[in-house]
Amino acid sequence: MTRSSLYFLHQAAEIMEKTNSASRFVDLVQTKKSFEDIKYWTWSEMLIALKQCQESPSLTNSSIMLKKCIDLLSQKISLADGASSSASSVNSSRFRSSCDSKSTESLKTNFASTTWWFEDLLFFSTECLEMFVQSMVSHEFDQVLLSKFLIHFQKSKFFNATSDVKMKVIESVIDMLDTLDENVLSLKALFDILRVTLGLNINKGSKNRLEAMIGSKLGHATLDNLLVPSPYGANYLYDVNLVLRLFKAFLSGGINQVSPSQLAKAANLMDSYMAEVAPDPCLKSSKFLALAKVIPDSARKSYDEMYYAIDLYFEMHVGMSEEEKEKICCALNHKKLSYEVRIHLSKNPKFPLKSTPSSPESQQPEAENLLQNINYSKSLISWPHNLTEGINTDEKEDKSSEQIVLYHGKFDLPADNERFKVHLEGMQWRVLELEKLCRKMQTQMRKILKSRVASSYCQVKSLPKLCS
């Protein structure tokens, strides 16, 4: 009984067992006894046996021989690459003595080429591939190297393959990558796989798993990663629906599960993406609005970049109705717009009137508060006089310079002046700056006057008495 004929003997033993042959027990025992010798097979003999297993149409995935061969193959690779921590020292010595020249050379060269086994396993079917990956994971093999093998397997299998074969291979590779640690694959590699699937009608489960893997790393993505062409037959330029799904996957665990820095990066990335897709004349307003709302408000510190993206979208879509514009403008949080952007918004004819920071009815009380601050700043003009009084009264700080002169009159804003609040806010900002400057000067002058008074007092006290 030779090693190369073991597979055929095993098949014959199974057939004899089914036909109740009188000698089936003896043959089956001899065949199964030969299984124990598999651990001493060389690498080449193991590959021959695996190829024979795959070529048999009657062999199922649960075949004892196939599983045993793949498991022993995984252990040999783990031993050669020094990645298995579960193999015992006894088995290790057996495997080392049974490795052929190829694996032995790899050991002698201190694992100079950790991918030496990649090409030998390209004959795997998708079923054998899944069994192999599961076995390698169970032996605690380096998952980074295992992911590289899966990518290499996918690229090699795609040469001269039909669409059905490509679809089956890429689905199997995605499913196996999903079983590995999420940190073993780079985001670029995942997007490369995503682009491969664009022309293939892969099943929904594999597609969702791939998008979930990408979504978990979206905080590290770049704008170029997101610029995926739209599906065949679509009239818009980029696949906006895909980007929406990726961001939803990114936030699927809840906003509290994402670090603030990653949220900020994702918000900036979305703003850049919106600015990139805004000129597309075929992009519907509903899709653009969905992009604007996919990132929660709490994740944004500023809405300035989103405003510029919306401004560009309005410029390229001149036929939009006021209602459509108002829906998009509702995504803006005016409280998180900078002063310059609010000034620009107040003068922007492309935006609807209702999109201004606040309505005229709400401007009157705020305007009154602004005038109060202006009157307060005027009261600071008299600070030198108050300062002198403070020094002459035991150096107590005079509070009169900080009193606010209230404006009790009714401030009547014209109903048609919708931009008045923005200009008043600018005045308030300048008044606050003047207040800070006045307080600083007031403190400095108080110190100067104190030093002068103290100096003059010392000089008078030190004068000599001319008369006794």
TrEMBL record:
The answer on whether this UniProt entry bears the keyword Ribonucleoprotein reads no
Recorded hits in Pfam families, A to Z, give: NPH3 (PF03000)
What are the residue boundaries of the NPH3 domain, all occurrences included?
A: 115-366
What superkingdom heads the lineage? Eukaryota
Decide whether keyword Lyase is in the record: no
| Entry keywords, A to Z | Ubl conjugation pathway
**What does the entry give for GO biological process?**
protein ubiquitination
Task: Give the protein family.
Answer: Belongs to the NPH3 family.
Q: What is this protein called?
A: BTB/POZ domain-containing protein
